[in-house]
Amino acid sequence: LLMGNPYVIVCLGIAGVLVSAYAMDVEWKLKSAGPFYKPACDSSWGSCSAVFSSEYAHILSFWGLVPKGSPLDLSLALCGLLNYGVYCLYPTRVFRMLPKPEILLLLISIAGIGFSCYLLYVLKVVLKDFCIVCATFHAINFSMFFFGALPEYRNPTIHRKRKAE
Q1: What pLDDT is attached to residue 4?
Q2: CA separation (Å) from 139 to 77, 96, 106, 109, 136?
Q3: In 3D, which of 117, 160, 155, 157 has the Cα closest to residue 3?
C-alpha cells in the first residue's frame, strides 16, 4: 500500500526537513552558546554536538572543494534541508515538469544512500561516535530509496502515461 506512493516520498521529505532544521538549530546554538549548550541529542550513546562541530560537518571544505568559511561551505544540515525539500516537491507540477522525474528522484535517492554509507563510515570508523540525528538522516535516506524512489521508478502507470503523451 505504501510502496510507490508519492505521499510516502513527501512524508519522508518532511521528516528530513524537520530533522535538518533541528540539526541546523543545534549547530547554530553550538556556535553562539559555546560550551554551555548541551543539545538534547547528546547522550551516553553518543554526541551529536561532537559530530556537528567536527570538520566533516562542512564536507565541501573538508574535501577541499570550497574554502573553509566561504558562502558555499554549506553544513550537512543545510544540504539535508535542501535535499529533503526537493523530495517534498516530487508530487507537484514543478517537479513533474522535468523530463522523467522518477529517474531524477531515483538518482537523487541513490546519491543519498551512497553519501549515507560514506558518512556512516566516517561516524563509526573515523570519529568513533554515534549521533542519533545522523542515524535518523540515514534511516530516512534508505527508506526514501526502498519505499519511495525505487517503487516510484518501477511504477508501470508512470511509464504508461509517458507513452500516451
Answers
A1: 57
A2: 15, 26, 16, 12, 5
A3: 155
